[in-house]
Write a structure and sequence with these properties.
20 strands, globular, metal ion binding, 7-stranded antiparallel sheet, Jelly Rolls, Pirin, mainly beta, iron, 244 residues, metal-binding, Quercetinase_C, single chain
């Protein structure tokens, strides 16, 4: 079963300097039917004005990754990391026992458009960690490239959860295929453009919950960029229990 939710059905927030669309409940937006899926808790589709951003704030016990679509995001954190995140980069912050960070639009004249995604970790109270990798653009051109995994396969960043995240870009006659292992769920997010998932057209911002399916095919892309989450078969996230 593939259940598609249109982009326009997402929660919306307009803070002036920040315009955000929430796939799942976040901040002032709450929908009991949209409280995450499997271990996927948050997908925020953010557009930030030049020079603006999120000042220093803390997180703990969450796997948080940023995926920039346009512009440049400046990151700083209490681990001493300072970096710039551009399209093609994958950034993963494991908040663990606690981390303080800030994210700002690195440009004074152009907006930054990025996805911030939260995944519940397998374990709580783990050491905080930061990873960033620039993905070779050919690896996701007309195919799905593994960008996050629990074991670091294919040079993916290592995440503390039984989840695998893929990114792909498709246009025209390009097609990509993903075979899901037995007894797995998946979530598909269309980051930009349009593409057909198993023959059903999806547009930018649309999402799809996938259950009891083993084959996902992406065809007829028009400047499409997609993220695919291979997930445990749980309906909603359950917060991790850790070791003290």
């Amino acid at each position: 079963m593939i259940s598609v939710r249109a982009a326009a059905q997402r929660g919306q927030a307009d803070h002036g300097w920040l315009r955000s669309a929430h796939t799942f409940s976040f901040g002032s937006y709450f929908d009991p039917e949209q409280s995450g899926f499997s271990d996927l808790l948050v997908i925020n589709d953010d557009r930030v004005d030049p020079g603006m951003g999120f000042g220093s704030h803390s997180h703990r016990d969450m796997e948080i990754f940023s995926y920039v679509l346009e512009g440049e995001l400046a990151h700083k954190d209490s681990l001493g990391n300072g970096s710039s995140i551009k399209p093609g980069d994958v950034q993963l912050m494991s908040a663990g026992t606690g981390i303080v960070h800030s994210e700002f639009n690195a440009s004074q004249n152009a907006k930054v458009h990025f996805l911030q995604i939260w995944i519940v970790p397998a374990r709580a109270n783990q050491p905080a960690n930061y990873q960033q990798h620039s993905l070779d653009p050919t690896k996701k051109r007309g195919r799905l490239a593994l960008i996050l995994s629990p074991d670091g396969d294919e040079q993916s960043l290592v995440i503390d959860q039984d989840v695998r995240v893929y990114a792909g870009e498709l246009d025209g006659y390009e097609a990509a295929h993903l075979k899901l292992p037995p007894n797995r769920y998946a979530y598909v997010h269309i980051a930009r453009g349009s593409v057909a998932l198993n023959g059903r057209k999806m547009e930018a911002g649309d999402g799809a919950r996938v259950m009891d399916e083993t084959d996902l095919e992406f065809t007829n892309g028009r400047d499409a960029e997609v993220l695919v989450f291979d997930l445990r078969p749980n309906m909603q996230p359950q917060m991790a229990r850790g070791r003290s």
